[in-house]
Amino acid sequence: MSCPGVCVTILKKCLFAAAILLQALMASAEGDKPLTQGALYRGAVQPGSDVYYRDKKVPVTAAGHFVLGFGRDAELEQTYTVVAPDGKKTQTTLTLEAREYPVQRIEGVAKKYMAPSEAHLKRVRHENSLVKKAREVDSDFRAFLDGFIWPLVGPVTGVYGSQRVFNGEPRRPHFGVDVAAPTGTPVKAPADGRVVLYHPDMYFSGGTMIIDHGYGVTSSFLHLSKSLVKEGDFVHQGQPVAEVGATGRVTGAHLDWRLNWYHVRLDPQLVVPPMEKVQSAPAAK
After folding, report:
1. Which domains does the chain have, with CATH numbers?
2. pTM
3. CA–CA distance from 37 to each of 13, 41, 267 (Å)?
4. Which of the residues 1, 19, 96, 227 has the least number of beta carbons within 10 Å of its own beta carbon?
5. Which has more confidence, 38 or 27?
């Protein structure tokens, strides 16, 4: 005797249980880092549910996974609403930990980057529109569920959220993590995804690549000297995709890795193990 309704219900419950387990495993893999400003939040709901955040519907996978992002100065109390398949509404409130950000002073920045000409500003506006479009890609890739790795291992020379002072002049905060390495050092994909933008020479960021990991989550690589892939290519975690450079507004060769949820700028260091732990790990044979 068949029982399709009962079987579907059991399947949904199993998927929901699996989603909760995966959520716990992801938190464990990242070292149980606290939920803070700048964090990427991955949640799980009953399959078939709708999720709303800031009055907007958030994409949810068939298994019930979804993702939210909280910016550098996000309010410490965040709420999202879940509408279950039976119409029942529930609200979940998340409490973020406040962060303090260091001041980073950088000298030796070229004058043309401190006060761009009108022609350069026109170029910057065009390049910003390309980046904006790339970060609005809304694919159904689920790579953000599989965890992230460092795209480059080396000394961390700049951190997310730090207030930057160029040549003694206060500027906007830094929204990535900088890792120093010689020009030509391979940069690896931190997670599976599709290359949605590569520009060899943006005014501020130089060689710039954006990889879509799905559901609004993207990685950006700045100051590259070379791309090893092209726009539209699907890349796998750990695959070399570019090379470190010293292009754009820099004072030395390094990678600036940025993580976004759509246009919300997140802290990449919150989705990977501490650099010290990675550097001390035995090399793979």
Report:
1. 4-95 (2.60.40), 103-280 (2.70.70.10)
2. 0.84
3. 32, 11, 9
4. 1
5. 38
